[in-house]
Specification:
seven-stranded mixed sheet; two-stranded antiparallel ribbon; 16 helices
């Protein structure tokens, strides 16, 4: 700012500090004294707001040390000091109005609304009226702000709107990503095959979704466990229709994810409730409902394979045992020791030295599970489990079954039994018997690999609590049936 020298005579101020004017395009400071005075912003919020509007400082926050020099105030707004050493003060309500952009002149008073609004004149204006109107028309608006062209202003506004829309879309996308990362849900692990394998036993997200697409049409027919119990108490017919007042805590696919986590990873109900932000009672109902649903749905499809179908997929390694229809073996699940001594004696297994539950698993030669028995007490023998399972009723005379040495079932079946030979009374096994034992053992081991896959579900690796004994049969069957959908071929060269 260039000041007129005939108006102000400035001299150097001898002070340790200096004050500066905060008005744009004003370089006045307290380095020179004698004429200028500097005034802080008023404490009154309304007057302070008028100061900020007049000095045109966008997004400016004044501090107690922010000053405006006396160049921007009218003379009648200042109060002269009573003594020479006193400071000049401003009158109450004084507002800066003199600036470089209005040439340090007082702005004209605002025209009243009655003067700005032209009266409606129906008569045609005369030449004198038009001349008088042009003479009284102000050259600009009723304020002294510089006005940008309308087209340029509109382009700037459109560009700003577009920029804000893009920023908003980016923030919404970022918010959704953060929400997914902070929420324990299936979508969070789409790209992580290791996580999908840990939580669901499915090898990847794609295979999990293929299984979901297969069962999804029947999900709406699911009968919830709580609804079934309520209908039983009222002696009413159970329906799969959810009442309108009942709110679903999770989506069906998330419920399936929760159930598979309970089965595969072995998380407790409290842990799952914390992960999915629901109550433990809701977790318990979801697990019970999905156990019954999958047991009914997957169990409704026959997994038993006829002899012709087995031969169509028979691996080349079974050419010497081409009539083998099923490979069977027993497995045991450790369970919590019951308090009753009688039940303890029935559940105790001398082989595992623990209370167990025993089941019979049968697979086709190329790997899929084709037979699942119920769970029995651990003290029962393998032969008795085979007899109670009903597998002998499915075997015909033209097929064969492959078992371990512990299955003395020749008198229980009509078909051929491939079993490693016993040593009997000989001190050493003959060469043909050794070769036969090796061949059968190398093929029969496939059923143990399938059992190992089933026991990869953590709930069966640990000691099964007595609290879930009522549903352990259905849960074990569901784990076996899911194994046919979750795993790849046992041996790559057998895949057809």
């Amino acid at each position: 700012m260039s000041l007129k020298k005939d108006r102000f005579h400035l001299s150097k101020q001898q002070k340790q500090y200096h004050e500066h004017c905060c008005v744009p395009m004003c370089s006045a400071s307290s380095t020179y004294n004698g004429v200028l005075s500097f005034h802080a912003f008023p404490s009154d919020l309304e007057i302070r707001k008028r100061w900020l509007v007049n000095i045109r400082r966008e997004k400016f926050v004044p501090t107690p040390h922010t000053k405006v020099c006396s160049l921007h105030f009218l003379k009648e707004q200042t109060i002269s000091p009573k003594t020479e050493s006193g400071k000049r003060r401003l009158q109450r309500g004084a507002v800066p109005v003199l600036f470089q952009w209005n040439n340090y002149t007082k702005p004209p008073p605002r025209v009243s609304v009655w003067e700005r609004v032209q009266p409606v004149n129906t008569a045609e204006p005369t030449a004198d009226d038009q001349a008088m109107e042009c003479a009284h028309t102000p050259p600009g608006d009723d304020h002294d702000y510089p006005k940008a062209p309308e087209a340029a202003f509109l382009d700037m506004a459109l560009d700003r709107i577009k920029e804000l829309e893009e920023t908003n879309e980016a923030l919404v996308k970022q918010l959704m990503e953060l929400k997914i990362c902070n929420t324990f849900a299936l979508e969070r692990f789409i790209q992580s095959e290791a996580s999908i394998r840990l939580y669901t036993r499915f090898p990847n997200y794609r295979q999990f979704m293929l299984f979901w697409e297969m069962i999804e049409p029947a999900v709406h027919k699911m009968v919830r466990a709580s609804r079934a119990k309520a209908a039983e108490r009222r002696n009413e017919e159970v329906t799969s229709v959810r009442p309108a007042h009942m709110r679903q805590a999770l989506q069906p696919i998330e419920e399936l994810f929760l159930f598979l986590m309970y089965l595969s990873a072995g998380y407790t109900e409290l842990d799952l409730a914390n992960r999915f932000n629901i109550s433990t009672s809701t977790v318990s109902r979801i697990i019970c409902s999905w156990t019954n649903f999958l047991y009914t749905l997957l169990g409704s499809a026959s997994i038993w394979m006829e002899a012709e179908d087995v031969k169509a997929y028979l691996p080349d390694d079974f050419k010497e045992f081409s009539d083998t229809q099923i490979i069977a073996d027993c497995t045991e699940l450790k369970c919590q020791t019951p308090s009753s001594p009688v039940i303890q004696s029935e559940m105790y297994s001398t082989y595992k030295s623990h209370c167990t539950m025993k089941a019979l698993i049968g697979i086709a030669p190329h790997g899929p599970i084709t037979f699942i028995s119920s769970l029995y007490e651990g003290s029962i023998s393998d032969k008795e489990v085979f007899r109670k399972s009903g597998l002998s009723d499915l075997l015909t005379e033209d097929v064969a079954i492959m078992v371990d040495k512990g299955f003395l079932i020749n008198d229980l079946v009509k078909c051929k039994v491939y079993c490693p030979p016993f040593l009997k009374r000989s001190s050493q096994m003959s060469a043909p018997s050794v070769l036969k034992t090796q061949k059968i053992a190398s093929l029969r081991v496939q059923v143990e690999r399938v059992i190992r896959r089933i026991k990869e579900n953590t709930i069966f690796e640990t000691v099964v609590p007595l609290s879930i004994v009522g549903s352990i049969n259905e849960m074990f069957a569901v784990a076996c049936l899911l194994s046919n959908y979750q795993n790849k071929d046992l041996v790559k060269r057998w895949a057809k």
